[in-house]
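3.2 Worked example (two chains)
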Amino acid sequence: MNSTLRSPAVAGSWYPASAPAIVEEVEGYLAGVEPSVRPDGLVALVSPHAGLRYSGPVAAHGYSLLRGRSGLTAILVGPSHHYAYKGIALWPRGAFETPLGSTPIDEVLAAALMAADAEWMADGPRAHQEEHSLEMQLPFLQHLVPDLRLVPCLMGSQSRQEVDALATALAKTIAVAERPVLLVASSDLSHYNPAPVANQMDALVVDDVARLDHERLMARIEQSREHACGGGPMVAVMKAARELGAQRSHVLRYADSGDAGERDKSRVVGYLSAALLAA
């Protein structure tokens, strides 16, 4: 077994098990997007990570901006749902595999990111083995971006110190990267509230993202983790994006899980797609 090849954990359950079925579903969601922003100056995306049938129609609004891009490294930053730890766990070498194929790790950039802050960054493959928050970005990324490379990062505690350390390391590393880099913050919003309650809670986070106000979002998450499971990744990416020249944020789409599938509005999960742009 190749210990540097990360096998898919949720293919066949959270998204289809075959490449043709993935492409068909992803293209179906992309076809429903009416462009509302130009992709020029795209620094980062905020994207959800639920099952594709639920979050895919929202995620498509962000990933549609990558149509025609190639030679890109995506730094994926998400929460760890299965393991508790302090720091950021990277998968720094090898490849991530899905039914769409194997996407190589940008090993040069991953090594530079770990070197940027040895206290907080670690080679942590165990945290990635069962995790879905980064894998659920791959159906869109692998389908849309030829010559894609990845740097997968999972946050543990999502404390303010951890967020600040990651944001600083990301900005420092990306500023001197040899390839074009896109930051992706993977997060769902509130979980399992009635839709009116969820939509009211989520509107606060959506407004923080729209204002590109990472400090207010960090304070909100410190007050209650119920706002977003990947609040730390969102804040770290927003903060790094600002350091890298992002001056505005465009909220592309908000919806909840009751807008898809069985249309059950009694217990919903919130989903957000946003683009952080320079100039």
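3.2.1 Second chain
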Amino acid sequence: MLKNKVPWPDQMGVARLLRESRVLPRRFYVRDTETVARELLGKILVHQGTAGRIVETEAYLGLGDLAAHASHGLTQRTRVIFGPPGHAYVYLIYGMYQCLNLVAEPDGTPGCVLLRAVEPLIGIEIMRRRRRAARRPEDLASGPGKLTQALGITLSDYGADVTRGVLTVRALKCEPPFEVAATARMGFTDQADRPLRYIVRGNRFVSGARVRGA
């Protein structure tokens, strides 16, 4: 716990999470990227004692999507995107922020989903120590760089199989209902006419601009 600060309590415990959820199987990811991006909302991202509910994603569509790293073709950096689905693609931006993507589409077809924000559920004090600049729980993981820092995800997780191991995505057996809102991706003009950013409508943990009425 940070000195002289009131603790931010976890929303659920690890035992409850394990009891009330299951790890998403690989077949979840063997679908078109937009579907995977939308259906990752509400799922639980878990990494080494921390977990958060995914509340914001963006779809990156591969070779024809100029905003996608895969549009440059197969490289050492992008090889995991062209491989089997259900793996982590982690990269560095601005020389300091790490971003987590999950690979979608069948093996050999590039596509991935950027996880932009999660609602902290477990290990919140751990996240708080990692994100000392956060002044409230909503600031812990409301952005792709904040998310990885809060959950301790680094370049060492590149290629991790998220259907097993220490970095996984779980689905609650009784997932609470929510509405999905969609907008253009943030910061890109390519595919600007397509709603490739998905958020849980009304959720206060999303990053950046919200949809009107969301």
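3.3 Remarks
The first strand starts at residue 21 and ends at 23.
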